[in-house]
Amino acid sequence: MAEAIKIKKNLYYVGVSDSDIRTFDIIMKTANGTTYNAYLLKTSEGVILFDTVKQEFEDEFFEKIESVCNYDEIKYIVMHHLEPDHSGALPELSKRCPNAKILISPMATPMLKAITHNESMSFETVWTNKEFELGGYKLRFLSTPNLHWPETMSSVLINENILFSGDVFGSHYFDSRLFNDLVGDFDYAFKYYYEHIMRPFKSDVLNALKLYEKYEINTICNLHGPIIRENPQRYIELYKEWSTKEVRLHGKKIISIFYVTSYKNTKLLADALYEGIESNDLMIANMYDMTALDEQNMISILEESTGVLIGMPTINSDAPKPVWDLLSCMMLLEKKGKFGGCFGSYGWSGEALEMVQSRLKALKFRVPLEPFKVKLVPTKQELSDAYYFGYEFSEIVNGKAMEMTL
Ligand SMILES: Cc1cc2nc3c(=O)[nH]c(=O)nc-3n(C[C@H](O)[C@H](O)[C@H](O)COP(=O)(O)O)c2cc1C
Ligand SMILES: [Fe+2]
Ligand SMILES: [Fe+2]
Q: Quick count: other Cβ atoms within 10 Å of Cβ 302?
């Protein structure tokens, strides 16, 4: 019989571990497995439950709950996040305690319906600074959208200074010792998790940190991996550092040119663009052959670049694979504030350029200029035009009003 683990007076861990999982949400590797954390607070007026677990582990979750309370004592179920790793046991839980009120963010309402397909579930929506009291405990809600889904929220147990952070500050790292001061070194997992889940939403992370910093948080009850009770400030600072990095090299903004080429036509254009950008004192240009970049390097370069120019020939009516590989890395990065553009040589139809242009737009890059296209071998005039294209792009990245905004 699984038992709840006491974390603090009246607060229990009722989460479960998934030590065998090796891939999470398709995009993450989980060498130590992971945990689905959930918490239970006993008060003199009833129980508050914080989140549930993945459905396949619900029996263990229910055993843990039953080890500390009866279902009719549960007054509130706080759902910080509705992804199935946390909402999986909710349908069964709500059957076992039909009178418990489910608290979700306003954005979560249509999601809850689409996940449970249960119209009779009783829920209430809460938003930033809404609070309630139960048995002398005061819980305040904080909206933390996009960390990790649009509906995600956190909450703070005021007076206790315990933060229920949702997915924020999690790690996919299972260690039965449970607390950050007892488990092995999980720094790599903490960073890896940030990079895959939080980094695409850096601005939202900074907004969340602003809400958190009003509290002297002593414990972070997150939804995955070690619970952070020793030096939570260190983990908060790491998120701040990773999310604020405004990258400049020698004081200049970076524009990166990525190209592929078979007969050097596109490369000639890339060289001319490079010179055009470099003629702008406030910018620094970097140039890379995509065929020799691995994914991690692509991600690092994209992250530090304010401007990205992608050059390619059209091959069999498409852009060559390294271009799509590069663009797929953008899934892990925030596009806000980045500028994009494309250029290349083609033989007769040149479809690649329109495709990449519209992909950049779909990724929410600002794409101020039409693709720079040249039929086969660039002329002297075309190389000179490419130089000015590079210069114009750099001026726009530097803040000049865009001629064509999106
Ligand atoms: C295998 C192959 C397929 C091609 N398919 C197309 C195509 O579908 N449409 C097009 O406009 N040009 C096509 N081209 C022509 C190239 O885009 C053109 O030669 C271009 O100048 C090559 O630029 P690069 O020297 O930078 O590689 C093709 C070339 C090759 C070698
Ligand atoms: Fe999530
Ligand atoms: Fe999660």
A: 19
